[in-house]
């Protein structure tokens, strides 16, 4: 499989970066058969005019982008937030960490961008120890969205979206063009929103901007820490749907933390259920609903939801093949299905 | 009667009053300028190195507890003699406290989730200060400078007691000659200066505050 990663960088740094990236890719390729290392090309983004470094990974490149090896975080008072956590995440995967508060899910996320340093264990990003990156450089390679939105109130929407580009000293014109492009991606009219301030937007719009901000510098991995937690249920579901759609179109790896099972089921390719710093179960949403690993997972899902979702999942697996719900209904004749329409359970019999 | 005499004094001694006003401006601007240049960076440093904070705030607070008159006399006992220099030093240390306090509150008061979001996005320490903390704290810092400035305009009239000159010398002269009109000739420009300083600083605060930080009444939020 072959994928490309883009880094928007100023022209004068291109040569330097290109050689750095090449050497890095050689290292990735070392464990693989020769001739499969990949290529580095300089491309110009047609819309923004930003020069991009395009790394095309060869076939030998690992699918795993993020790996936790015996990751542990304990504090001075002997409390262990994360206890020997092992997990591999593939490129383009949407992984949701879920669990009750204090289960270590947020801590795990924050160790990825080194807001929290692990006590022991390793995080590998692209086969490389995260600690080998300077924190600032590491964070600029990742996208980060937090619950409290965290938009800068003194900056306009355009400035907020392109904040990371500003940190990278990319020019104002290019930053604005990138913000415009991203607003279009989220179906927000750039001319209306570019020069507004966060206070002039609703909560839902603000968090849309928060998500766009994490995409501005084209990171491979986006970390999201309960991003929709503070929104009302209807807006939350809208944003979940938009995020899922966005993720499919931009093919990013997303590590998402939540305590809301509905959200996890709706978004995840794989759900990681955590408790007391341990992983209790890692599975696709469907699988978790069918075969919860133990009583804890079952209770966490909730009996009610297991029943309701179980039927809905059958419908969804049909949906995944591109069929709409009407077709899905035909595909499961004489069966009672629960269809989730805009967050409301509607029972219908076919 | 008094008004008439005062106006007469103004008319007859315009040059004298202007010179005193000039001295007064120097007595205000130099200490305030120094206080801003020293207190703001020191306090920002104290927000990073917390151990420094008790010393920074402690010193500026302690100075404030000394009666202003005593502080001026203290300068003489400290060996600075009389004249403009001890006045400027005294006014400078007296001006520190509001600036230190507000700078600390302003920087420290920047919402931690904003700082975290910024750090999580990859700000360096300087970028965090420059792009996030300072812009958000600027209004509070300016308020501190404003209260410092206004009180210094008043305090600076006392500099005349240690030979620092300024409008205070007119007031002292009036007092010794038992002439209210001369006292007023010193007082009125000082009061006007205080008002002007207040007004200009308020304008500056308004000017540097981006639209996104102004409190919205009946906000244009939901749509």
TrEMBL record, chain B:
Do you know which CDD domains this protein is assigned to?
TM_PBP2
For membrane topology, the record states:
Multi-pass membrane protein
Q: Tell me what this protein is called.
A: ABC transmembrane type-1 domain-containing protein
Q: Where in the cell is it found?
A: Cell membrane; Membrane
Q: Which GO terms describe its cellular component?
A: plasma membrane
According to its UniProt entry, this protein's organism is: Ferroacidibacillus organovorans
Q: Keyword annotations for this protein? A: Membrane, Transmembrane, Transmembrane helix, Transport
Q: Which PROSITE patterns match?
A: ABC_TM1
UniProt similarity note: Belongs to the binding-protein-dependent transport system permease family.
Which positions fall inside the ABC transmembrane type-1 domain?
A: 21-201
Q: Name one GO biological process term.
A: glycine betaine transport
What are the TM regions of this chain, as residue ranges?
25-46, 66-94, 149-172, 178-201
State one Pfam family annotation.
Answer: BPD_transp_1
């Amino acid at each position: 499989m072959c994928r490309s990663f883009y880094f928007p960088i100023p022209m004068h740094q291109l040569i330097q970066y290109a050689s750095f990236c090449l050497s890095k890719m050689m290292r990735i390729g070392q464990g693989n058969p020769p001739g499969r290392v990949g290529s580095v090309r300089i491309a110009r983004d047609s819309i923004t005019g930003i020069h991009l470094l395009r790394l095309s990974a060869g076939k030998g490149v690992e699918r795993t982008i993020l790996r936790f090896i015996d990751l542990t975080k304990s504090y001075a008072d002997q409390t262990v937030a994360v206890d020997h956590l092992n997990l591999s995440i593939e490129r383009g995967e949407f992984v949701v960490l879920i669990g009750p508060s204090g289960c270590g899910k947020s801590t795990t996320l924050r160790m990825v961008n080194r807001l929290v340093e692990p006590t022991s264990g390793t995080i590998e990003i692209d086969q490389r120890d995260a600690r080998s990156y300077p924190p600032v450089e590491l964070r600029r390679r990742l996208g980060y969205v937090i619950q409290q939105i965290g938009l800068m109130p003194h900056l306009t929407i355009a400035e907020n979206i392109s904040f990371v580009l500003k940190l990278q000293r990319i020019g104002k014109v290019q930053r604005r063009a990138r913000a415009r492009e991203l607003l279009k991606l989220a179906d927000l009219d750039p001319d209306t929103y570019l020069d507004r301030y966060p206070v002039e937007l609703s909560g839902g719009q603000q968090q849309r901007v928060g998500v766009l901000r994490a995409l501005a510098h084209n990171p491979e991995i986006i970390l999201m820490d309960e991003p929709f937690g503070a929104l009302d249920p209807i807006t939350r579901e809208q944003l979940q749907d938009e995020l899922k759609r966005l993720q499919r179109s931009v093919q990013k790896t997303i590590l998402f933390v939540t305590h809301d099972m509905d959200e996890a089921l709706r978004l995840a390719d794989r759900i990681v259920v955590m408790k007391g710093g341990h992983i209790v179960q890692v599975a696709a949403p469907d699988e978790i609903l069918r075969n919860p690993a133990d009583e804890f997972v079952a209770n966490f899902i909730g009996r009610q939801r297991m029943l309701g979702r179980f039927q809905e999942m059958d419908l969804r697996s049909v949906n995944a093949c591109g069929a709409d719900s009407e077709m899905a209904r035909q595909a499961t004749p004489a069966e009672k299905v629960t269809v989730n329409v805009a967050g409301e359970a509607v029972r219908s019999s076919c | 009667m008094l008004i008439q005499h005062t106006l007469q004094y103004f008319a007859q001694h315009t040059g004298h009053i202007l010179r005193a006003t000039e001295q007064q401006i120097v007595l205000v601007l130099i200490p305030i300028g120094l206080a801003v240049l020293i207190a703001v960076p020191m306090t920002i440093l104290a927000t990073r190195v917390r151990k420094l904070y008790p010393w920074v705030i402690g010193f500026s607070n302690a100075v404030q507890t000394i009666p202003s008159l005593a502080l001026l006399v203290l300068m003489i006992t400290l060996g600075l003699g009389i004249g403009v220099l001890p006045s400027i030093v005294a006014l400078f240390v007296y001006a520190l406290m509001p600036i230190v306090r507000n700078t600390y509150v302003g920087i420290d008061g920047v919402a931690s989730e904003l700082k975290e979001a910024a750090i999580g996005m990859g700000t360096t320490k300087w970028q965090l200060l420059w792009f996030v903390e300072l812009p958000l704290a600027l209004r509070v810092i300016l308020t501190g400078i404003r209260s410092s400035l206004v009180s210094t305009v008043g305090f600076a009239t006392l500099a005349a007691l240690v030979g620092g000159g300024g409008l205070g010398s007119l007031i002292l002269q009036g007092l010794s000659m038992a002439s209210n009109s001369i006292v007023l000739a010193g007082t009125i420009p000082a009061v006007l200066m205080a008002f002007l300083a207040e007004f200009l600083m308020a304008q500056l605060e308004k000017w540097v505050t981006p639209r996104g930080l102004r409190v919205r009444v009946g906000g244009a939020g939901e749509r």
